[in-house]
Design a protein that fits this description.
With about 180 residues, this protein is mainly beta. It starts with 13 loop residues before the first strand and ends with a strand. The radius of gyration is 28 Å and the shape is elongated.
């Protein structure tokens, strides 16, 4: 992990995805299907801003010159992975079952550097903020329908789903450096 702001060489972002689907038939009554999709994307951004803080006196008059000022430099990088898999089986339009798998992974890496006259003691300081976030969603689902005759035409729908979501923020650190 880099602890600096990428000033000039911010990586180029982009996105690519792939999707594939196919249907198979076995005999007159058995139908199978598969659909797969995957996507990868990333984006990177560098922002530099100047900031100022002005004091207001007891009569509501704003001072002409700032009491605190400096530069904020930040870099944000995000990376996204996502995938989906669908499998299906159909027996003579009497029994249908589908399985779906969904997986998403999003990461965000943020570096923030603040330089300037900061704080109540009006010292020249450099503040660093380093953040890393990783979010994951993992879902599995099985659904189906069964058509049958019992006194009249009947349909039984069923389904089962299980999911997990995870947030990971390791080593979120803030450093305060005071330059004398």
């Amino acid at each position: 992990r880099q602890y600096n702001v990428a000033y000039q060489n911010v990586p180029v972002g982009g996105k690519v995805s792939l999707g594939v689907g196919k249907r198979f038939t076995s005999g007159d009554k058995h139908n199978f299907g598969i659909i797969f999709n995957y996507e990868y994307g990333q984006s990177h951004k560098y922002i530099e801003e100047e900031w100022s803080r002005y004091e207001v006196d007891g009569e509501g008059v704003i001072e002409d010159s700032p009491s605190q000022f400096g530069i904020v430099e930040r870099t944000k990088s995000t990376i996204r992975h996502g995938g989906m898999l669908n499998l299906s089986y159909n027996y003579d339009e009497q029994f249908l079952v589908k399985y779906t798998k969904l997986y998403l992974l999003n990461t965000a890496d943020r570096v923030l550097v603040t330089d300037g006259i900061i704080g109540s003691n009006q010292d020249l300081q450099r503040l660093f903020s380093l953040d890393w976030e990783e979010r994951v969603i993992n879902t599995d689902q099985v659904t189906g329908s069964w058509y049958f005759d019992w006194l009249t035409k009947q349909k039984l729908d069923f389904g089962l789903q299980w999911s997990t979501a995870k947030l990971d923020q390791p080593n979120n650190l803030k450093y305060d450096y005071i330059d004398y």
